[in-house]
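Hi, here's the filled form for the chain we discussed.

Project: internal
Contact: R.S.
Residues: 441
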Amino acid sequence: HSFKAGIDIQHVADTRTSSPQQIYTFPTVASYLAARSGANPFGYNTFQQYFGEPGIDFSSNLYGMFVQDDWRLSDSLKVLYGLRYDLYDVPAPDANAPFETSRDFVVDKNNLAPRLGVVWTVGSDRRTVVRANSGVMYDQALLASYEQALINNGTNARASASFQPATPGAPAFPGVLSAGAGAQPNTLTTVSRDFDVAYNWQNNLQLERQLNNTFAASVGVSYSRGYNLPVISNINAINPIGRLADGRPIYSTAVNASTRLDPRYNVINQIESLGESTYKNITAQLTGRNIHGIQFDFAYTLGKAEDNAPITSVLSVTGDAGRTNPESLDFDKGPNVLDQRHTFAGSIVARPSIDGGNAFTRGLVNGTIVGVAMQFANGIPIGLRANPGEINNDGVNSDRPAGISRNSLRLPARYNVDLRLSRQVAIGGPRKVEVIAEVKN
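And the returned structure, exactly as it came back:
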C-alpha cells in the first residue's frame, strides 16, 4: 500500500479597475458611416454603456481535501482509489442589491469526487499493459460569474445599460447616457440560487503492447461527461409576441410589466448551472526508441466534443456566441468551440553518427541533435451569426440566422512543423558552448 492524504487551501483576491466606456455595434460599415454623417443616427445594432465606480475588490477561498491509496495486489496488478472533497467559498454579495438573488450567493457544499484506477500487466512476457481509470473532477467556481454579478447588481454604484435602437431611451449616435437620472442601469447580472459547481466524469481505457526492444504501440479510448456547466440566460423577457422560422421566441422591445419579469430592467442575465457536455475519442500511438540514434513518437486522435452550454467570453477566454433560445437549452446543442475531430501529433529526435568520411564531415555530423515536432489538425468550429446580431430581442447580440445550427462552420485545417538543430562545441577544458537553430512554419 502507498497511502496519501492532503489538504489544499487557496485564497484568491482580485482588484479590477476600468474606466467608463460606451460601445456602439453596427451591422455594416455603411450603417456606421450613415450614423456618423447624421443621416441615420439609429442605424446601429446595440449600444452599451458602463458607468459608476471604476474599481471593485473581491476575494474567495478554495479548500480541498483528499485521501488516496495505491494497492499492489500482485506483481502484475495494481489498484488506485481515492476520494476528494472541494469547497469553493464565493465572494461576499451586496446585501443592499435591489434584485433578490444578488443579495446572497449560495455556496455549493456537496462536491465529493471519487476516483478509481487499475493497471494490469498481462501475460508471462510482461509486454502488454492494460490501464483503466474512472473519476469525478470538480471545476473551480468561475469567479468571473460573481465579478459580473457584483459589477452589474442593478445599482448605480457600477451600472450597465444596453439598448437597441427601438428601446425607449436609446441614444442617437454618438450620444451617451448622462450622469444622474439618465444613467439608470437597465441590465443586471446575477447568479442563480440553484447554482452548482461544474464537474466532469472522466473514463479512460488503454492497451499498450511492447512489440520488441525498439517499438511499442498503444490504443486508448476516452469518454467524459460534463454536468452543471455554466450558462448565461436572460430570464427577464416574457410573453413572446412572435416566432422565428425555427421556433425561437420573439420578444417586445417595450419594457413594462407585460413584457418583462421585472420591469425595472430590460435584461437580467442569470448565470445558471444547466449545461451538459460529452467528449469521446480514440487514440492510436506508435513509439520507437534507439533506432540507429533515432527515436520517435506518433499519435493520431479521432474525437468529438459537443455541449448545450455556449459560454460567452464574459466568463471564458474561449468564448462562444451565447445562448440563443431562452425557452430551450438543447436548441444550442452542438460542437464545442474546441472540438477537433482529427489530430495527428508527432516528434522525432535524431542523433546522427558516421564513422567513415573525412574528419571535417565527422566533426560536423557527430554530436549534432536534430528534432522535429509536428501537429496536423482539422479546424475548430465557428458559428454563423445573423446581421443584425439581435433578431429576436432576447438580449443576445449574437443570434444565428433561422435554420442554422450552432458552430456549423469550421476554420481551415492547421499544419505545424518545427525543426530544431542543436550542438555542443568544446571551447577548452570542461567548458562547452551550445549552438541552437530553430525554424517554425
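Let me know if anything looks off before we file it.
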